[in-house]
Amino acid sequence: MNKVSIIGAGQVGAATGLFIAQKQIANLLLVDVVPGLAQGKALDLSQAAPVEGYGIRIAGTEKFAEIEGSEVVVVTAGVARRPGMSRLDLLEKNASIVKGIAQDIAKYAPLALLIMVTNPLDLLTYLAWKVTGFPPQRILGQAGILDTARFRHFVAQELGVSAEDVSAMVLGGHGDTMVPLPRYTCVSGVPVTELLSAERIAELVERTRRGGAEIVALLKTGSASFAPGAAAAQMVEAILRDQKRILPCSAYLQGEYGIEGVFVGVPVRLGAQGVEEVLELKLTSEELKVLRASAEVYRQGIEQLTPYL
User: Do 192 and 201 touch, CB atoms closer than 8 A?
Assistant: First the structure.
């Protein structure tokens, strides 16, 4: 069976492990530097198997060498946001953590595909790419799926319909500059612009941008875990089953949308080779302007990564 390693056995890492286990697509290895944490979470997940009916092997370790042979490595390790913090506020604390992890991934799992979840997502995906030296199609960030899920939830809640019937697309960086696209949002094929006023759609867009911060403010001592874990698991499944899913992910752009040299959220075809294609949607001039502005925030942020490169 395939092997997936999750670096970081905290709330997000454990949630990611649970959703992957339920899909029964790979054996799991949880890795964490905190003694006993990964082993304890692995044992807990294993003991849920008789109830949930998954039949995979789940192990925990503090030794990075054990990720050898992983087809996919998911990185969730790092410091979580606190109330009042933006994702960019985490850069200095998490960059040094991710640098060390990326070095170990390159050493022990040089053929793996790497999914970044740690914030600030787009910048740390860039850092991991630089440190590992992996081809850009084998490194991507989980963000757009999560942001899109939040937008779909808010639209479904507003209309009183099933979230399964809501399709949407959120591009841009994983932060305050993300770019929800109401024109590409439908309920069973009906454009949301025909169901809600422009003013109400704008309010839902803004709530989506603040989706993570809203949860942080409510929890006070933590951040979102279930939705990020589900989104990361969906990416793992698309890769291991070579599903060719069209999903919004943080990918390296080389001229698409007039953007070059940064990781930012765009729709990609996700399969066994990782990012197999970046899809260029037909955006309006205003949508394109906002997407490029979002990318520029992260282009400027790359300068802050210099001490870690």
Answer: yes
Lookup result for tokens 């604390």: 93
* 3-141, CATH topology level: Rossmann fold (3.40.50)
Q: Distance (Å, rounded) from C-alpha 91 to C-alpha 73? A: 21
Q: Which two tokens stand for residue 271?
A: 């399969």
Query: Which CATH code, of 3.90.110.10, 3.40.50.2300, 3.50.50.60, 3.40.50.1000, is assigned to 144-308?
Result: 3.90.110.10
153 is catalytic: no
Among 174, 185, 262, 298, which one carries the catalytic annotation? 174
Q: What is the DSSP letter of 81?
A: P
Confidence of residue 286 (pLDDT cuts 50, 70, 90): very high
Higher pLDDT, 200 or 177: 200
The pair of structure tokens assigned to 288 is 């394109």
The rounded mean pLDDT for the chain is: 95
